Amino acid sequence: CTNLTSVEVDQKNPIYSSYNNVIYDKNKTKLIRCSEGYSGDVVIPNTVKSIDAWAFAYCEKVNSINVPNTVDNIGEYAFCGCRKITKINIPSKLTSIPNGLFDKCKGLTNVVLPKGINSIGENAFYYCSSLERIDLPMGLKTIGDSAFYNCSFLKELIIPEGVTSIGYYACCGCTSLEKITLPKSLTRIGG
Fold first, then answer.
1. Cβ(157)–Cβ(135) under 8 Å?
2. Kind of pairing, strands 119-120 and 142-143?
3. Does residue 46 contact residue 22 with C-beta atoms inside 8 Å?
4. pLDDT tens-digit profile of 8-37?
């Protein structure tokens, strides 16, 4: 529904609510879905604790998403295909980057992962073709298959000490990649 720009839930609905064309649970603790045609910036209320899988998938006209630090859970592929987003704040309560979280976020240029992140899922930054820099935190343990697949502007990747596993094709298609630093702790690449 790429032309859907307006979503309103009746205030008497006992399960769902809406705010600025985004669907939430009744108490606005869970963000369920943003309309694909939404255009502009999204400010998520501080009451939100979780964002559903695919919640912003293919919202190609969204410029930015302000994710509050109250969020401690984000579902797989939540921001997949948000092509205009150039940067996003990742909440400090998050402990993992789910599978496909930023898949095809082609405008994303710089990412700083918070200290609490211990894993990066499969396809997490898949086809983030404008990504130039990603800061990986100490405490990171695993990097999933195809995590940075086709991040064609990424020039350097420093894998921090503590990482034990890097999945298949993690940096496949990173045509500008000139340097990777691997830690002493690494015990598995692929397989």
1. no
2. parallel
3. no
4. 899 999 999 999 889 999 999 999 999 888
